[in-house]
């Protein structure tokens, strides 16, 4: 109890160790909290000595992570450059841009939309190739290996730090305690007691389950809401008679949609953080460690779901349930489900991912980590000034005023330390962005690297100058975060496999080249990947009312379905099933490859 | 050095601790090495006290494994009984047996073989259903969970034993040594030295690589040789004019093939064991532990490959490359590749697995573990008698002869102890049989359980009465065997997924029921799963020369291919691709299900 109970009763305002200016202003500033030493290793031993093991381990981990981001960043940039340099030789995008092929596509909305030429989406097809080429697949495989290496490397580094910092004894005690507990439990057969415990905590579990369900529901409805916004805006704007507005509608709607998504993610993240704390307090965990662990687990679950839901939507759901011409799927009566842009969903995924990742980092770093603390400080200074003025009016404490400010006065003005969890959380979510969908955006590691190099020094400056010196906490490793990292790495293999085979067009292109192409080249792929639709099969009211393109009897759409002149018109064709089998085989191949 | 160098120079014949008859004949015999106590737990603490930690851990592990085999055994028998009781209601096998459907199948060999009625394989189709029904899939999922539980349970038990037997300190020393080594190595950068090491050991590595390649080649050629034997025998016997011989040919060839396979497995296992020892000695490992570990790894690799190769062949390769009527695949000029029996490969896999597993256990337990030691003992007794006679002739040591036999004389007559590796190996290969292909043979756990209950007491009797008391060896856990178990468990998820989707007919049946069936029942499945072949498309010389079935214009074969009257005759049909996609989707589903 001691000081804590005095603090709780308000006898003292606060209790904290003082900053040691002789270290912070010289050693730590010169060797660490300084943009000038960005290219150097961090003085981890010094950090540990000054802040304790917990914070030392955090910065050591951040250092290892940032350092190991260098190879994938370089390779990602090379992959991107490869895309740029080979874009001109890419047959599918050439064919898309070729006006002579004269491919008429089915309208994108009912009634008001016209037929359109495939060559109008030429630039998007070119852009799509930058992220959807063979090198991306190799890069995704590399990234899975990289994740395994990263975890292994960190395990070794941690073991070494444990040895150097003499944390092994800490571990032994814990293990010994656990084993004793387990062996005794086995003998005592305390199941009956556990059962009553279960009954007692039932209402807590129920509350938690309901809360989590509500939050999952909120996240998904937010994603769905933005999708509905896009669907509605598209059909409303399409009715605009101005042709210029019509051309830009898709771009505008996509951009505003992404910005909306990002804002929702940022707002919900703060809300979920608060809810996770509340939920964990409900559970009344017995020790501080237990509290931390549960809180981390809950907030990680909610925050990551929140951050990744819009991206998962674009990667795996958008455009999958749109139906086909003549048999579209409608939501809310007469709004058609949204489709991806014609060159594939990958480019949309890529834009979405880059925007959310960059936006989140920029806004969080600048607003939450720099601006808000500054504002808080300013507010406090103003408050203090007021206090001083009042004091000056009363002219009672003049004597003390004149004394130079003591270190504890200075430190009291700083923000209290609130644990390293939020720092870890930010980095882990970033790790998720880097690994989960790297197959769609090879530049992600480079952006992460750039962010982290700055982040380390920003955090360093924060710890040294803006928050009170924390109590040194001993801990033997980074704990649950390591398990979360392992989980993300494992999961990323699956998501990347699915992104490559279902979001990108890698597999259909390969299948065309080696199974259907007459001369083994990609020529004719665009033609092959589009199905025919007889415009006379449009249900009443869905055919374009006015059209600039005359004499259209057949329009084309992106799918593998039998043409209207076959007996099973508009059912999935043999190509569809063979491509699907190849996609699934690729997923298995990719998974097995990464496991062994 | 000491006693070891004296032993090496032949000063002493042998050095070993003596058996303590007061313990072996009372406590150990009553509570352990006795079939009467089969239903009780083993006295593990006593075993450890008498034989040391290594052997104690082996029997503790064997006990846990045997105990945990009980639930899958019971469930496996239930699944099998479920198959028996629902066999009559099974539509596909009813349809196969229905003479009225009058399905004429294409001949099984060129020229001499006749067309045949599908209803002639009725009994095989019924037997096939016993192992290929919906319950088997659930059982395979259960077994994957079981494997995870088993490993987890053993980890806990081992931790507990470690604590009770005070083996934790042993571990700490090792870990500490390793970390020190690692951290120092990191600083010293001893890569150059490692490089020279690599050069020095290059010829050893080369020898090893060549040897392992040769052995892999031998194993595969053995499997392939047996396949060739079957192919040749089938075509030779088919020419036999006696109709009775013709009917039994398939059964005879399959049975002899399996027996051949089993003999090859048993012989090669002994050979590979010797080769593994020789190879490991070539490598000159520095410590005894290193030697053991390398030897185990090598012999496990070779022996398991040897034991599982014929089963893998039947599960995934047999009948996959046989071609189709009119376009068969031939080996060695004019022998057709072998096909599976018409109700599917699963029944053959099931027979193969049960025969190899049972045969291996019976022969190894009876011949290698009981008969050969007995023979050796007999041989030694005869030798001794001879020695005595000679001694009696010389009548020099008469005095000593009359003295009662000392304990060291008795123990010297026993077999020397040769490590627990071979015991582990046997059990681990059995674990492989139980887990890898459990989807095809749900009775495997029951057979394993039966074997192990006997095995424990057999081993116990061996340790107590037939071999010299071993030196007590301290070790902290079961070492590399745990990793091997983990590897097998992981691998078994994949093999079971592939067995269910590619060897069994579960997925095609489901697809038929939910996609193609007109009324949602299985009626018509047999018809749907057979393709048409126009007999006028037989290449010259391959059509049956004489036929008992008249008026055949179309014969049927098991595959999903377009019929002769469609434009793409005999190419894979839409059904083929959709079933393939479903199979692959099932593999992914099964894998993901088991991972989380």
UniProtKB/TrEMBL annotation, chains A, B:
Name of the protein this chain belongs to: Anoctamin
Transmembrane segments: 58-85, 134-154, 209-238, 258-279, 300-317, 428-450, 478-500
InterPro entries named among the record's database cross-references: Anoct_dimer, Anoctamin, Anoctamin_TM
Record organism: Mola mola (Ocean sunfish)
Domain annotation Anoctamin transmembrane: ranges: 47-592
Limits of the Anoctamin dimerisation domain: 2-44
Cellular component GO terms held in the UniProt record: plasma membrane
Protein keywords: Cell membrane, Coiled coil, Glycoprotein, Membrane, Transmembrane, Transmembrane helix
